[in-house]
Amino acid sequence: MAQDAIIIGGGHNGLVCAYYLANAGLNVRVLERRGVVGGAAVTEEFHPGFKNSVASYTVSLLNPKVIKDMDLHKHGLKILERKVNNLWPNTDGNFLAFPVGSKALHDEIALYSKADAAALERYGRDIEMVADLIRSFLLETPPNVGGGIRDLLKAAGFANRLRKLSIEDERIVMDIFTKSVADFLSMYFENDYVKGAFAFDGVVGNYADTRTPGTAYVLMHHAFGEVNGKKGVWGHAVGGMGAITQAMASAAQAKGAEIETDAAVKRVLVENGKAVGVELEDGTIHRARIIAANVNPSVLYNQMVDEAAMPADFARRMKHYKNGSGTFRMNVALSDLPKFTCLDQQPRGTADHLTGGIVIAPTLDYLDKAYRDAAEFGWSKAPIVEMLIPSTLDDTLAPEGQHVASLFCQQFDPDVDWDAHREATADLIIDCVEAYAPGFKDSVIARQIHSPLDLERKFGLTRGDIMHGHLSLDQMFSARPVLGHGNYRAPIQGLYMCGAGTHPGGGVTGAPGHNAAKEILRDH
Question: Which of 205, 295, 329, 331 has CB atoms 3.0–4.6 Å from 450's, for a disulfide?
C-alpha cells in the first residue's frame, strides 16, 4: 500500500516532521540509511563501557514548542544544565570563564577589564533583543520570493516587526547580519581575551576567520537557545544526544509513524513533473504522494533527483550550493579527569568548570591564525578545540571513576585527503590539549575520530558541513537553500525539504521539521 508520506532520513528534523504529519492522521514512513535513527544526534558505545554523543554533542537550540508538542520528557528525555557555560584556559596559567548568572559573569570579566564588565549589560541586552527577534521567526516559513499574495502579506508582516524597532535597534540588527564577529564585538569590548571568548561562537561550524563579514550572525545563531526555560543556557541530554532522537522516534511511532532503518534511498521517483516515491539502494520501491527529504540539499538535488526533472537554473545553483564547516570531531575514553593547569593555579578554579565547554582558543588572533593555517596547510597547527566532558554530569556514559570527552575542533579544510591525514591530525589535537592539561595524553584509553570526510560518509554531512550548508546571507531565510524555494517546497510537485538546509539552518532545533510539516499539511 502506498504511504501518504515518506521521509528521507531519520535525523532529528525528519523525526519531527514525521511526528507532526502522523499526528495529523497521515500514514508516514521514515526511511533511514543507517542502522539507527538520529542522524548526527546519536549516542554510540565507541569503546567497551564508554559511550558518548558521536557528532552533535550539546543541547540549547532544541525548540521548546517541539519539546512540548512531542512530549519528549514523557518519552524519556531529561536535560541537565551545565554548572559553568564555558572555560577558556590561557597559556599563562590563568583562565576566563563564562559562569551561569549575570553577576558572576560580570565579576569574571572584570578580572580582565572593568570597562568590558561595564559594557556587558549593554551587550547582553542587544544580543537578547536580536535573539528574541530571531526566536519569533524560527517557527515561521519565510516569505517565498516569487510567491503570491500570501507571501507578500507575510513579507509585510516580517517588515512590520522590524519597523517596530527603534532606529538604534535596527542598526544592531543590521550589524548582526552584515558585520564580522570581530568588528561587532569591538563595539562593546576592548580586551583580547574577552573578545576572543565571545568570538568563538562566530567560527563554530563556520570555515572562516573572525574578520569575515557574516560571522556576527553565526555568533547570533548560537545565542537564541534555552534549556529548561532558561534562555542562553547550555545543557546535556542524559544518555547523550541519542536520547533526544530516541525520544523523538518514540513520540512519532506513538502517533503511528513507521520507521525503517538500513533503508538507503538511491533516488526520488518523478513522473510527469511530480514526485511519486523513492527507490532504495537495494532496488525496493516505496510510493507516496508526499516525499519530504531530511538531507543536505546537495545530496537531494545532486544525487537523488534527476537533473532533467528540475528547472535548469535551479539545478545549476544547487551544483554550487556552499558546504564545508571545517569541523573535525573526536570522542575519547579517559582513565581520569583532565587536570588543567589553569584550574590548579587559580584559586577560583573548581570542579564545576569541567562541566562546561572547555575552549582552547583564547584570543581573536588565535582564532584567526587557526583559519590561516588551515587555508595554507589544510589544518591548523594550533587548532581550535572545544572539549566537553559530559560524564561530569552523566554517570551513565563511562565506568565509575573514568570519563568520556567530546573534542569538537574547528578549522580543517574539507578538501584535504583525510584518509591519509586523519590519524596524524588526531595526534595533533591530543597534543594541543596536553599543552593545557599535562597528563591528558596518557589518560586516553581509546579515541573515535571523525574527520570532515568521515562526517560525510557516516552522516551524510556534505564536505563535513554540520550546518547542512553555509549560514551566509545568500543561503539564509528566504534564500535557504535558494531564492524562490525558501518555503520548504522543491521545484517538483509533491517533494519537500525538511532538514537543516532550510530555514532556520543547522543545530539540533527541530524547527525545519516543524515548519516543513506545517507547509505539507497546508498543501494536503
Answer: 329
Radius of gyration, alpha carbons of the chain: 22
CB 350, CB 363: distance < 8 Å: no
* Backbone φ, ψ for residue 4 (5° rounding): -70, -45
Residue 276 lies in a domain: yes
Q: Is residue 492 part of a domain?
A: yes
Secondary structure class of 372 (helix, strand, coil)? helix
Residue that the C-alpha cell 572539549 belongs to: 387
Query: What does the pLDDT look like over 266-317, one tens digit per residue?
Result: 999 999 999 999 999 999 999 999 999 999 999 999 999 999 999 999 999 9
> Are 59 and 227 spatial neighbours (Cβ–Cβ below 8 Å)?
yes
Find the Cα–Cα–Cα–Cα dihedral 202, 207, 209, 215, rounded to 10°: -40
User: What is the tens place of the pLDDT at every residue in 187-209?
Assistant: 999 999 999 999 999 999 999 99
In a domain, 191, yes or no: no
Sign of the CA dihedral running 441, 442, 445, 446? positive
Q: What is the spatial distance between Cα 452 and Cα 462, in angstroms, rounded to a whole number?
A: 8
Give the domain CATH number at 290.
3.50.50.60
Torsions phi, psi of 262, nearest 5? 55, 40
Question: If we measure between CA atoms, which residue out of 445, 443, 465, 463 comes closest to residue 453?
Answer: 463
Structural domain including 36 reads: 3-42+60-79+238-322+463-523
